[in-house]
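Give me the fold.
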Amino acid sequence: MKIDGKTRVCGLIGNPVEHTLSPVIHNHLAKIENRNLVYVPFLVEGDRVKEAIEGAYALNIYGLNVTVPYKSAVIPHLKEIDKLAGNIGAVNTLVRTENGYKGYNTDMPGLLRAMESENYTIRGESVILLGAGGAARAVAMLCMEQGAKEVFLLNRSMEKAIAVAKEVNGIYKEEKIVPMKLTDYRMLPERRYLAIQATSVGLYPNVEDVVLMEEEFYDKIAAAVDLIYNPYETRFMSMVKAHGGRAMNGLKMLLYQGIIAYELWNDVTVSQETAEKILIKMKEERK
């Protein structure tokens, strides 16, 4: 592409950023749309988040993504924050406004769009949510937003599970999130569940790890989502499939969170056909 004085610059701030697939998403989107935009990763040291945000605005950076460990740290330095991002307590997309950046969370809308593309649904479903960290907390809110019937939040630490359930139930003024110890899965009501794996267990290079080893647990799962995308098929996914369930990884979530950010920056709608082209590029890049 031709880079000139009219080129819009977008990027990613985080630490580390060396292995990110985000440039694949945005630079290929810009190429397909013939848009004069370039996307680059920016490594930011831990104590320089405020400087990074102010510097990016001063340099006329058009939009930014935010990755770990700064999704919460950026919030005090933003002009405005979207309601969903405020509830989740994490921002991963900054959109330039007149006096500063506005923060959004496109991770959960990205997960929803990814699930819908594979004909998964949350509305009316009984959900098993594995984990009680930041990702699980956000997924719990998505389940509330999308009208899940009930969400059984299983975690090694009951204290953390209770804290997340209390917070999310309080925000939505419903008692749908039920905290449980991970080992108490046998107490779940007899039915087939949608399971969402929101821990880092099984992430490369620890590919043989799985959050629950017991075979009988997987008999309960009709469909599953593992937010991990490296490896492409986690042991959790393979165990779900071995017991007759279907499973998807988190690569499409990464794709669609990026697409939604791109749509916010450029006020466009990306077609499903274009999304599929970008997904192919992402799969090629991660090999």
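The chain has a mean pLDDT of 96.
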